[in-house]
Amino acid sequence: MADDPSGTAPQGEQELRRELKEARETLHAIRTGAFDALVIDTGAGDELFTLARAGRPHELVEVVARGDLGYFRAVAIDFDGTLAEGAVAPDTLAALAEVRARGIRVVLVTGRITAELRDVFPEVLDHVDALVAENGAVLITSVGVRRLAAPVDRAVGVALRARGVAHRQGQVLIACAAGDEAIALEVIRSLGLECRLVRNRGELMIMPAAVTKGSGLLEALADLGLSQHNTLGIGDAENDHSLLEVCEIGVAVANAIESLRAQADLTLSLPDGQGVADLLRGPLLAGRTHLHPSRWQITLGADDDGQPVTLPASQLNIAVCGDTGSGKSYLTGLMCEQLVDLGYAIVVCDPEGDHVGLGELRRVLVTGGDDRRLADPAEVVRLLRNATVVIDLSHLDSEAQRHYLEGLPAEIEAQRAVSGLPQWVVVDEAHAPFGRAGASLALFNPAAKGYLLITWRPDQLASEVPAALDAVIALGSPEPSDPLVDLTAAVADMPRAQIAQLLTGPTGRAVLAWRARPHQAVAFTPSPRRTPHLRHQHKYARAGVEPPRRFYFRGSGDHLTGAVAANLSELEDALNRCDAGVLRHHCPNRDFSRWVAGIFHDKRLAAELAAAESQLRRDSPGAIVEQVRLALVAALQGRMST
């Protein structure tokens, strides 16, 4: 096919040439190794394909992200009074094109009947990624048109016509003038129907009871593979309340009605399309500023006055730090429970099996561990589109864990760049992957927010990590470590001595330091949890400690018997098999309880073992020896089953 130098080739032919040229350039880039991944529009949302060569993970994220996207991946905009008053201004259309070019999806959410919208905005589908029409009842995407509810009973239209009320019939709703509200209500009551009447300034819509702009938007986002928590909603009128409510941030234009301005998280200084264009080009959508609505909060606990201690549920980087056994995994699980309840997606990297109890919640999947197949990193990303995923690595040795975690961050960060999912990346034992030579450090993008890092060695974190933290939750103890005090004081911007005083005390207390509230670190008692807290479940039962820290059994005369325990399961087995002389040697010295307390930091189990040991002396009769043996074994079995 010859080129057309005059540029007068048919539009379809020019489009085909452009697509062929892009395809050739892409194939060349793949062959020469310029890309590590492709994002392909499959018609049901972008699909990420990671290529075999992935030697530059930082370039992977840059390619997929196509620039600095910030936190939001979608904007949901009302039409009348918000995007435009009548025709859409050219500058507003330009702003829409700019955000779409950055990878942000645009969803138009309108009360209008589709045909009436096209009368004033005929090219609407050229400027948006999805259209929610009829106040949430009709969805139009690249896949086609879908009714989200059954049409309002035709008897309503017949009765309105009989009463002389002019109305229009959409695919689902019936529209009439707001002045006819009383008659419409009488008609619905007389017919015994369950319908909603929704006002939009001078218009009235008769809707199926469960349909709102908010419900329609959620359907559109699901089709696009996006989340309400990465969506910013903009409206102006009565029927926009639900739209703003479901979005992470709800925005009212300057000309919005008073009630919507009162509900909105942000009210613009400019009206309709001018305000929309200014917002789309502003720092909020670009991620240079952050807004934390009060309705998206998690409660950590209560302070000494009984007041709730809270944090925003998104757009933060948080570290949970404290000594071993101080309650880090408990508090992390408490936060994750609430985030799941609010609808956020989380991936939890769980080296010790501490967080598998979260699997009892809806929309939480656990992969890995002794009883489940471990999903590979690409499969984890696919699962994250519909659920929170806990990756239990406790069945792997340290080298296998390291290898697995080397491939995971690139997949997760690439998916976050495309869809914003997951909103949270939770990493336990974070001082390893986020240490000075950690495998995840090259992909650590503090501006993306949503990192929750748990560690008992904050001093081993790479230098750029503490600087990127927005908040630190430090667990108290009788003798808090110097690195813990230093990090908490730095984030709180408070004197070190004050922080040390707040952190010193019995276990079970914590201190929140938040950069947004300098000089105001607060001590609190964590709230109760809903799901089981399984601290180091697999490590206690099966994972062996290194040889110098193992328990070596001795008999009478302090001679080694050859029996060795590297974990609690082996300790239980050895106690079942050892002779009475071994128990008479170890129990009076409290050797079993001291080993459990020193190695596993389990004070409760150590106390139960010590109580049993205290019943045995070196000259105790055989019956007492067997009673103590049974008590020791029962304590171990009880702990490993909880």
Automatic annotation (TrEMBL):
It comes from Mycolicibacterium chubuense (strain NBB4) (Mycobacterium chubuense). Keywords: Hydrolase. This is Putative HAD superfamily hydrolase. One of its GO terms (molecular function) is magnesium ion binding. GO terms for cellular component: cytosol. Residues 314-506 form the AAA+ ATPase domain. InterPro entries: AAA+_ATPase, HAD-like_sf, HAD_sf, HerA_central, P-loop_NTPase.
